[in-house]
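Quick one:
INPUT:
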């Protein structure tokens, strides 16, 4: 006789068949615990995916996004001059921690405020639009969904007055 245990979670299914042995009851109890723990772990993973930071893939994805963003910015002759005297390694770290923070990740950004950072740069709407476009493209390259990219760009757009000093 085979004892079957089933677990259905939306589109996922787990079926386990146990043949009779001397420890069938023990094995059955172990499987029940395994199933119960799996449900708890699945629920926990679902709960942890509530922030934009987690949805987009956390720090590894943000690192990819920033690296791709920098490639695009430095290839643009209208934006490259703004970074002529910038330590790009330091800039990379600042942007990773900054994006992490505004996307509800770790609060580790220790740089200046956006208005102070961009003061005196005379950035205009076309500069902001180009960087927003490159950020969107970079997020797509990194595998971020369209919905999460839009959510990220909305957060960046909220900073436009400070970035453009207007």
């Amino acid at each position: 006789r085979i004892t079957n245990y089933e677990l259905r979670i939306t589109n996922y299914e787990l079926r386990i068949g146990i043949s009779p042995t001397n420890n069938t009851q023990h094995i059955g109890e172990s499987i029940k615990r395994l199933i119960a723990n799996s449900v708890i772990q699945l629920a926990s993973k679902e709960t942890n995916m509530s922030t934009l930071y987690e949805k987009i893939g956390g720090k590894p994805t943000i690192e990819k996004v920033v690296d791709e963003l920098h490639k695009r910015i430095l290839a643009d002759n209208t934006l490259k001059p703004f970074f002529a005297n910038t330590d790009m390694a330091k800039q990379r770290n600042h942007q990773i921690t900054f994006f992490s923070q505004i996307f509800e990740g770790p609060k580790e950004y220790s740089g200046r405020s956006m208005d102070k950072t961009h003061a005196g740069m005379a950035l205009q709407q076309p500069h902001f639009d180009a960087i927003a476009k490159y950020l969107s493209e970079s997020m797509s390259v990194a595998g971020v969904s369209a919905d999460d990219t839009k959510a990220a760009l909305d957060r960046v757009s909220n900073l436009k007055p400070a970035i453009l000093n207007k």
